[in-house]
Design brief:
Blueprint lengths: L5 E8 L3 H10 L8 E7 L9 H6 L2 E10 L1 H14 L5 E7 L8
Antiparallel strand pairs: 1-3, 1-4, 2-3
């Protein structure tokens, strides 16, 4: 089993939620699980699609977090860049010192 030493965080407009979740579920060789949170956010590079979002200055977003192997995370990011290239999807990787279950 590969070491889970990396946290991949993805942020996107809520309209892209199902597409990103589909990619996560279609690749169990890279992603063994994830957490998803609905939130709001804003960016200077973001297009606000609805009038309400334009008035409020922020949009409905989704944050997806998964703990995985760093090499797998980079492969998964390359996959997403090829399949879902969009300035509406932001990501970052952070190191994980330890990951486990309380069993």
């Amino acid at each position: 089993m590969k070491e889970k030493n990396c946290c991949l965080t993805l942020i996107c407009h809520r309209s892209l939620e199902e597409r990103l979740v589909d990619h996560l579920l279609e690749h169990p060789e890279w992603v063994s699980g994830f957490s998803l949170t609905h939130l709001e956010g804003g960016s200077q590079k973001e297009k606000l699609p609805s009038m309400l979002e334009q008035v409020r200055g922020r949009s409905q977003r989704v944050q997806i977090v998964t703990i995985m192997n760093s090499d797998d995370a980079r492969e998964f990011i390359m996959h997403l860049k090829h399949e879902e290239a969009s300035p509406e999807i932001a990501y970052w990787l952070t190191p994980v010192i330890e990951f486990g279950r309380l069993v």
